[in-house]
Design a protein that fits this description.
alpha+beta; Rieske Iron-sulfur Protein; Naphthalene 1,2-dioxygenase Alpha Subunit, Chain A, domain 1; 2 domains; eight-stranded antiparallel sheet; seven-stranded antiparallel sheet; 28% helix; 24% strand; binds FE2/S2 (inorganic) cluster; binds fe (ii) ion
């Protein structure tokens, strides 16, 4: 027994609709020359989304944010991941923990604000129960008449979920079954190691809510270079799709899908000037400053690592057709202490937003299109190679969960 709470969602029986979709997945497996896209209902069906919560999000490492947002002991942020309320807290020992934010009395949520400094711990506003930064119950007023505090203290601590940190990004695994993450990110780790992301300063993430498309589009749109000189014509020309380098990728070894794009000039940046606005991060080579690495750490972290900053999205699905994005940015502490930093930061974030606005229009339109009775199931262009990788990654998880549930049902019969 370890100290973590492993509480996957209740197993889900495979309905006729889920079975029908599972039967259609084989056509999406393989390589870019022969595979088709996933069935449209995999993007639009709420039932499939319920299946994905278990097969993908519960079973894997789900991203929550970056340690740079909670640099000091007692710093925390609160968020809901697929309906599960969490507190991500840096304890008085400096360790980052992922705790349930559900009070053990009657379930009120803890954490006065979406983010802040908890100092000694958390006190529930409902009846005053209190917890320290590690989730241990420290007070439960007026309970002595029914239960001695010593007894209560052992049974009413906040559950801690299994978590891991890679390059400063914090992930949670609810099922307890995900394989260790870092060994499955070797290729990506070496590609971005000179960014030293774990040591960068993080701005407070901005939340963009109510994005009316499926979570997979967010990764797909960011990972494929086919659309960039159509949808982003004129503003993406410094990073042309002809300059893309894909990665040969072994699913068993990888938890990430990624590509590089080499700029036509040194120190490119995704903003109106097409130039990085901050000075370059100190340890990058000339070549590294002249490219961006776009990476999806599956399922729900996307980042773009360019010469001066790393921008990222944590994708928080709300339903099959709605996501919340937590948008953050990392750069060196030196860069953030420049007198011009507020202006440079605004220009950098406005740049990301400029691309995002175009992608938003496309994502909403595509989500609508995939709800049509004649929605397409496409063959891929060579520049959509990452999307076949993404399908293959997902299908493996879909099939693994379906096999496990099928096994359990057979045992029950
Ligand atoms: S619900 Fe938290 S103290 Fe009662
Ligand atoms: Fe785009």
């Amino acid at each position: 027994m370890d100290k973590f709470s492993h509480v996957p969602l209740p197993e889900m029986a495979l309905s006729p609709q889920i079975r029908r979709l599972l039967d259609q997945l084989d056509a999406s497996q393989g390589d870019v020359a022969s595979a088709m896209s996933l069935p449209p209902e995999c993007y639009t069906s709420e039932e499939w989304f319920e299946f994905e919560k278990r097969a993908v999000f519960d079973s894997e490492w789900t991203a929550l944010g970056h340690v740079g947002a909670i640099p000091e002991n007692g710093d925390y942020f609160a968020l809901e991941v697929l309906g599960e309320p969490l507190l991500v807290v840096r304890g008085k020992d400096g360790e980052v923990r992922v705790l349930s934010s559900v009070c053990r009395h009657r379930g009120h949520l803890l954490g006065d604000a979406p983010r802040g400094k908890a100092r000694g711990g958390f006190t529930c506003p409902f009846h005053g129960w209190s917890y320290d930064l590690e989730g241990t119950l420290t007070g439960a007023p007026e309970m002595e008449g029914t239960l001695p505090f010593e007894q209560l203290r052992h049974t009413a601590c906040l559950p801690e979920f299994r978590s891991t940190i890679w390059n400063g990004f914090i992930f949670v695994n609810f099922s307890g079954e995900a394989e260790p993450l870092a060994p499955r990110l070797k290729g990506l780790t070496s590609l971005v190691e000179n960014h030293h992301m774990a040591d960068l300063a993080a701005i407070t993430p901005v939340e963009w809510a109510d994005n009316a498309w499926n979570w997979k589009f967010m990764q797909e749109n960011a990972l494929e270079p086919y659309h960039t000189h159509y949808l982003h014509s004129g503003i993406h020309d410094f990073a042309p799709s002809t300059n893309v380098r894909f990665t040969e990728w072994q699913e068993d070894d990888d938890a990430a899908i990624y590509r590089e794009v080499h700029f036509t000039n040194a120190d490119g940046g995704f903003n109106i000037s097409s130039k990085a606005l901050f000075p370059p991060l100190p340890d990058l080579t000339e070549e590294e400053r002249a490219r961006v690495v776009f990476a999806g750490v599956m399922p729900n972290l996307f980042f773009g690592a360019q010469g001066d900053v790393v921008f990222y999205y944590v994708i928080l699905p709300q339903s099959a057709g709605n996501i919340t994005l937590s948008v953050g940015m990392l750069t060196s502490w030196d860069n953030l202490s420049l007198p011009t930093a507020p202006l440079l930061l605004k220009g950098t974030l406005d740049g990301v937003q400029m691309f995002n606005e175009q992608d938003t229009v496309a994502n909403i339109a595509t989500h609508k299109g995939l709800r049509s009775r004649v929605a397409p199931r496409t063959r891929w262009a060579p520049n959509e190679k990452t999307l076949v990788q993404l399908s293959n990654w997902l299908i493996k998880r879909y099939k693994r969960y379906a096999a496990r549930v099928g096994e359990a049902l057979r045992e029950d019969a």
